[in-house]
């Protein structure tokens, strides 16, 4: 236990009520309770402590103590995690959980630890799909000429380029206004984020490309982690694992609800008949990635081999 009561500051991009926000709040409460108030994590929602790339850096340096980070913007900092941003890598959310909960997930956690981020548990973020203000996407050519916001990772720029669109990396908080003013025509995300960010009010076409199934971590700054004694570390880790179980459950329950909500608000959701056409466009991205990171080929193969 730390000698004095300590307050931990944690970063979260989502608003109150979002599955991750609920789970993070319960994580914080469990830690405070089990440490008898010696360690008090506090979660700051809505990215008020900075946008995601900045918050990752702040956590690495110990300016922030913890955060719930997506592996997309993690790529520029921890190159191994770029593997997780390869489009259509995972075939289902369940497969992604099996991968991340096993030895492969540990390999990613080790890579993050080298950059001063301690992974305590893995959250899900469903499948991401494209949405836009103009028309449904049914085939890759339907993306031609669309200006689309992507998260901060060059692989997403390559992905959108390969589909004929124009990628604009931008922070999450700027997307709503940019959609509204026509700076961008669309973006890509999962149903709960499309819903909670209000992007659905402007972008009325959501097309289920499901091109990205990407994990998120509950991560602690190495310096904050190392300052804890072993018993406290155990409490924190258990609380983080409980939070992941809860987040995954709330997620599974919430996705359908978000989908219904946006449809009720007038969004046209379409399934994609031929996902193979989108996948085929990604082949050069895989080739180039493996050429520049030959050491990561086995990681890709191991993920694909996980049923
Ligand atoms: C959300 C994800 C966030 C963030 C955001 C974005 O679905 O949970 O961590 O990555 O998307 O698009 O920036």
TrEMBL record:
<dbReference type="InterPro" id="IPR004682">
    <property type="entry name" value="TRAP_DctP"/>
</dbReference>
<dbReference type="InterPro" id="IPR038404">
    <property type="entry name" value="TRAP_DctP_sf"/>
</dbReference>
<protein>
    <submittedName>
        <fullName>C4-dicarboxylate ABC transporter</fullName>
    </submittedName>
</protein>
<keyword id="KW-0732">Signal</keyword>
<dbReference type="Pfam" id="PF03480">
    <property type="entry name" value="DctP"/>
</dbReference>
<dbReference type="InterPro" id="IPR018389">
    <property type="entry name" value="DctP_fam"/>
</dbReference>
